[in-house]
Specification:
The protein is mainly beta. The protein has two domains: about 5-40, no CATH class; about 50-90, no CATH class. Helix content is about 0%, strand content about 35%. It has no helices and eight strands. The strands form three sheets. The protein has a four-stranded antiparallel sheet, with no helix packed on it. Strands 1-3 form a two-stranded parallel ribbon.
């Protein structure tokens, strides 16, 4: 577990499959990306494509609503991607 604090990430972290990066909470543990080419690379494979997140992507939300939840399985991860306009999630991790 990453202790409470602010952590500048100066070079990319490469996480191997099965590794979970968890902090003490979103209000007390912050990872600040200060590298130009991305900060965290999750290794492993995933399948499927991204689907739209319909609601719940705003700060403070504790759940999200997606356009199609059929690809999700309890206990499996997902990958969220956000651009300037929309938020998407990939359930195939």
């Amino acid at each position: 577990m990453v202790q409470a604090g602010i952590y500048p990430i100066k070079s990319r972290l490469n996480l191997k499959p099965g590794i979970v990066l968890r902090g003490e909470g979103h209000l007390v543990t912050r990872l600040d990306c200060v590298c130009a080419d991305g900060c965290i690379n999750v290794r492993g494979s995933y399948t499927g494509g991204y689907i739209p997140v319909l609601s719940g992507s705003q700060q403070g939300s504790t759940q999200i609503t997606v356009s199609d939840a059929s690809g999700f399985t309890a206990g499996r991860g997902g990958q969220i991607k956000q651009d300037d306009i929309s938020v998407y999630i990939n359930s195939g991790l």
